[in-house]
Amino acid sequence: MKANKDTAVKKFTEGKYNCCQAVVCSYCEELGVKEEDVFKMTEGFGLGMGGLKDTCGAVTGMFLALGLTNSAGDMKNPIATKADTYRKVREMAEKFKKECGSLYCRELKGFETGKVLASCEKCVETAAACLDAYFAEQGR
Q: Is the distance from CB of 25 to CB of 35 less than 8 angstroms?
């Protein structure tokens, strides 16, 4: 899989994609999903879950892309890959948190403290870089 960090940042900085959309939509082709569908599906996840300033939208996008690639999608055995996906989500979350300081929009943007830990652009870049590294480790 090609590195898509720069694509994600470009999508975000052009102002047409929210942070979540920018991350996930940058991997649609490789993940075999339609960008238009993902774009619609992720519209409500920007600014920490639709403006609630909760989990960062870029982080959510990172988790969504990870699930799309790691899940077996086995409806008859839905737990086949769930524990592994959860473990990988936690690992990726830790990498993001180490780089940006938090997983939460309100903390990242300093809404409560006035101290910005990471810009939205930095969050998009970091989430996509985590995915790029993950896919490279998987030999994709």
A: yes
**Eight-class DSSP state of 114:** S
Q: Tokens in use for 84?
A: 């592994």
Q: What share of the chain is helix, strand, coil (3-state, %, to 5)?
A: 65, 0, 35
pTM more than 0.70? yes
Question: Confidence class of residue 1 from pLDDT cuts 50, 70 and 90?
Answer: low
Q: How many beta carbons lie within 10 A of that of residue 80, not counting itself?
A: 13
Which residue(s) pair with 104 in the sheet? 55
pLDDT in tens, 59-81: 999 999 999 999 988 889 988 99
Note down the domain range covering 18.
5-137
Number of domains in the chain: 1
Bridge partners of residue 55, in order along the sequence: 104
Residue 104: strand, helix, or coil: strand
